[in-house]
Write a structure and sequence with these properties.
By secondary structure, the chain is of the alpha/beta class. 44% of the residues lie in helices and 11% in strands. The strands form two sheets. Strands 2-1-3-4 form a four-stranded parallel beta sheet, sandwiched between helices. Strands 6-5-7-8 form a four-stranded parallel beta sheet. Helix 5 links the parallel strand 3 (110-115) and strand 4. Helix 3 packs across helix 12. The structure holds coproporphyrin III (HT9) and fe (ii) ion.
Length: 375
């Protein structure tokens, strides 16, 4: 047995995710949960419902999270880290509030949260923190003693997140026909968000011109493109592009969309494209529909060879990265010196979201940050 690792003061890890439907009857109530109060046009909702029905009403995200939980349990056990791992979602069972209640009943007092979103943004960070605050408010109203909740720093630039994606892009390039491989363009994709949300992402000093959201994605894209050049000797041209736009058409969102981008690349004579969904932690519906279905169809129509590279999912290197991040944060909370493990130009992200980080359109209480109303 390895020496036991020390996660004190934490007594549990909470995997916090989006949630997704597990059958046709779940689709509409799931979409209602997601879009409550968010002003998404009815037409868009109908269309997104169809994406789920095309896959039997089942989002792959829950099985992805189950696989990640298994990978985390295995990694923690193999390394002598005795820390229970729980799972709760924003939009579908197991619901965050129910999981948090169970954790309190199990006596957990200091909880560290791993969200399945690697980057700063309202949708990828503060909204999860708002959900944590809502859950705490519910437990408080039930008379339960509230645990203290912290959130792990953004892990977009952790080697355990980036390296599996480098391998994925290399595999996709290798999988392209020989004749088009050297000329292939890499389209790094992430979820589009309103440009106003991107501009206000991250701490106040990063606001403006795409904010921390765009800056962090560009950092990861550059890391992957550089690593690919080092390993293949070919400097593939690349661009950060967007997918899964929603919202009303008159509100500006980040562009270009991947499908328009494929068309432009094709028109410019690019012989092949690797689509690398760096904005997503696993192959969930955005990847299976928006890339593997819609963008693939667009490419087929153009006669453009494309490949889609893997997300990290339950890669053991990602599980190991989470262990390292847990131990790093535990040491910091104990007042010890640590050297954060990080790649790229931006350095490690903050441990605690400062006041004004990824502000909401309408301010609401958010936990696990400097502006948390909870301890
Ligand atoms: C930045 C970002 C991430 C990445 C970070 C993270 O992972 O959290 C993400 C992930 C996800 N988004 C998901 C699903 C949906 N997102 C929607 C709507 C929206 N997403 C937004 C942003 C993001 N979303 C935004 C700005 C909206 C507009 C409405 C609003 O401002 O809230 C809608 C409504 C319909 C639509 O309009 O598409 C659905 C169904 C699923 C589950 C997939 C599955 O089931 O497998 C996942 C992982
Ligand atoms: Fe989304």
């Amino acid at each position: 047995m390895p020496d036991a690792l020390d996660a004190t003061p934490y007594d549990a890890l909470l995997l916090l995710s989006f949630g997704g439907p597990e059958g046709p009857d779940d689709v509409v109530p799931f979409l209602e949960n997601v879009t409550r109060g968010r002003g998404i046009p009815k037409e868009r909702l109908k269309e997104v419902g169809q994406h789920y029905f095309l896959f039997g009403g089942v989002s792959p995200i829950n099985d992805q999270n189950r696989a990640l939980l298994d990978a985390l349990s295995k990694d923690f056990a193999d390394h002598g880290l005795d820390l229970p791992v729980y799972w709760g979602n924003r939009n579908w069972a197991p619901y965050l509030t129910d999981t948090l209640r169970e954790m309190v009943r199990d006596g957990r007092r200091r909880i560290l949260v791993l969200a399945t979103s690697a980057y700063a943004s309202y949708s990828g960070c503060r909204q999860y923190r708002e959900n944590l605050a809502d859950a705490l408010a519910t437990l408080e109203a039930e008379g339960l003693e509230l645990p203290r909740i912290d959130k792990l720093r953004h892990y977009f630039n952790h080697p355990g997140f980036v390296e599996p994606m480098i391998d994925g892009v290399l595999r996709s390039l290798a999988d392209l026909p020989d004749a088009v491989r050297a000329g292939a363009h890499i389209a790094f994709t992430t979820h589009s968000v309103p440009t106003a949300a991107a501009d206000a992402s991250g701490p106040a000093e990063r606001h403006g011109d795409g904010g921390a959201y765009v800056e962090q994605h560009l950092d990861v894209a550059r890391l992957i493109a550089d690593a690919v050049r080092e390993r293949t000797g070919v400097g593939h041209p690349w661009q950060l592009v967007y997918q899964s736009r929603s919202g009303a058409p008159h509100i500006p969102w980040l562009e270009p969309d991947i499908c328009d981008h494929l068309q432009e690349q094709h028109a410019a004579g690019v012989p092949a494209v690797v689509m690398a969904p760096i904005g997503f932690v696993s192959d969930h519906m955005e990847v299976l529909y928006d890339l593997d279905t819609e963008a693939d169809a667009k490419a087929a129509e153009l006669g453009l060879p494309v490949r889609r590279s893997a997300t990290v999912g339950a890669d053991p290197r990602f599980a190991a990265a989470i262990r390292e991040l847990v131990l790093e944060r535990s040491s910091i909370e104990r007042g010890q010196d640590v050297t954060p493990c990080v790649l790229g130009a931006l350095g490690p992200s903050h441990d605690v979201c400062p006041v004004g980080c990824c502000p909401a359109r309408a301010p609401r209480p958010a936990a696990a940050g400097a502006d948390s109303p909870y301890a």
